[in-house]
Design goal:
single chain, 138 residues, alpha+beta, Alpha-Beta Plaits, 7-stranded antiparallel β-sheet
Length: 138
């Protein structure tokens, strides 16, 4: 289960814009922060930013902000490319491209775009941060 918003702007701007309404939602709803925070490309200059709800959550409070929506995502298999460092569009794109190239080389079909997953708070030093490029397998 995900809480998500659509956020316009560059990769960095959208991540920041999307984070605000989501953190207000989980704070007001007394939901614990979980990881990862997921950012997926949408239409031009638009990104979907998502918080993963706590494991086992089958119901969560309805958001009071119309920009926040709750989405149930079915279980699925994904391919992941783990990398460290700060979150920026160049690093995301390099790892997304490498993941797609490896899967294509191995003849593995994918479904949808590569998403970016962040596991650490912004104050953690970049070299210690865990990130992943994720894509659903067909």
């Amino acid at each position: 289960m995900l809480a998500q918003v659509e956020a316009p702007g560059s990769f960095f701007e959208a991540g920041n814009r999307g984070f605000g309404p989501l953190i207000r939602y989980i704070t007001a709803s007394h939901i614990s922060m979980t990881a990862p925070v997921i950012q997926a490309p949408g239409v031009t200059q638009q990104w979907t930013v998502s918080f993963v709800m706590p494991a086992g959550a089958t119901r969560v409070p309805a958001p009071s902000d119309a920009a926040v929506r709750i989405v149930e995502v079915p279980e699925r298999r994904v391919a992941a490319r783990r990398f460290s460092g700060g979150s920026n569009e160049t690093r995301y794109q390099e790892n997304a491209d490498a993941l797609e190239a490896a899967l294509a080389r191995d003849g593995v079909a994918v479904e949808g775009p590569v998403c970016f997953a962040r596991y650490d708070p912004p104050w953690k030093p970049g070299f210690l941060k865990r990130n992943e490029a994720l894509v659903a397998l067909a």
